[in-house]
Design goal:
The chain is mostly beta strands and 253 residues long. Helix content is 11%, strand content 33%. β14 and β15 (166-174) form a beta hairpin.
Length: 253
């Protein structure tokens, strides 16, 4: 299990997570556990999690719609699905795109959801939608001054570490990148960053890292390789991940 997700109405079943899906189990041990999301998350490599729209109550009726956040572990796309605690139908996809979303909040007196949406170049403004999440409407424009500046683009890079482990990383480039030109490259690594492919990174000062959008706007490439640390050998683990990643970029030209 990867965490507890709350209880079903009446407390007879408790929901829990594995890496990809939502499960329901009987704490009395009478009924066998069942996968609420029909293992759709595992088959697609998507992480599904319950969105708690009613913070005052952890219990949800088993026949009520269940809103799920969704994150693709490989492509890093995100969105939302709809399901029910009871039933055998696979979750229904509502919205899924190359963006990052915050946790939605529902209005107290209307069936309207409020959340933010972002990408490397899209500021996390406020958005609203009905329960279907197919009528997204932007509410705010909180960062119009960004249009006056050069910014960054980002792409997902994949390679294999020295021990053959598949790895991913992020390569930030100036928004006017010219593949025929040469650029200085900065490499910044700490654990894993690839899940933040669609995260907005404001150019703020920081005491222990660098902001890719700041340097990309000044003509640098910034590479953030993932490091999968092995117990007892953190330094070698970093070398085995970072060096092949940089060589992969060099090989690409």
């Amino acid at each position: 299990a990867a965490g507890r997700a709350g209880g079903a109405e009446g407390g007879r079943r408790r929901r829990a997570y594995d890496r990809h899906d939502v499960w329901a189990g009987d704490p009395r041990g009478i009924a066998p556990p069942c996968c609420v999301t029909e293992e759709a998350g595992r088959r697609a490599g998507i992480r599904l999690r319950v969105v708690g729209l009613l913070p005052d109550s952890a219990a949800i009726a088993e026949d009520a719609p269940l809103l799920l956040s969704a994150f693709d572990e490989h492509s890093k796309q995100a969105g939302f699905y709809r399901d029910r605690v009871r039933g055998t139908r696979a979750p229904e996809r509502l919205v899924f795109m190359e963006r990052r979303f915050s946790t939605p909040h529902r209005a107290e007196q209307a069936d309207v959801l409020l959340f933010t949406r972002e990408s490397v170049a899209e500021f996390p403004d406020l958005w609203v939608s009905g329960p279907s999440l197919r009528d997204l409407r932007k509410l705010s424009d909180a960062n119009p001054q960004q249009a006056e500046y050069r910014w960054a683009t980002v792409e997902l890079v994949e390679w294999r570490g020295a021990d053959g482990t598949p790895l991913q990383g992020l390569l930030y480039k100036p928004d006017d990148f010219d593949p025929g030109k040469r650029y200085p490259l900065l490499v910044n690594f700490y654990e894993r960053s690839s899940d933040g492919l669609y995260a907005y990174r404001a150019p703020l000062p920081h005491r222990s890292t660098i902001q890719p959008s700041f340097y990309a706007s000044r003509g640098y490439l910034v590479f953030l390789p993932d490091v999968r640390y092995r117990i007892g050998v953190p330094g070698q683990s970093a070398v085995d991940a970072v060096v092949p990643g940089v060589l992969e970029l060099v090989h690409r030209g």
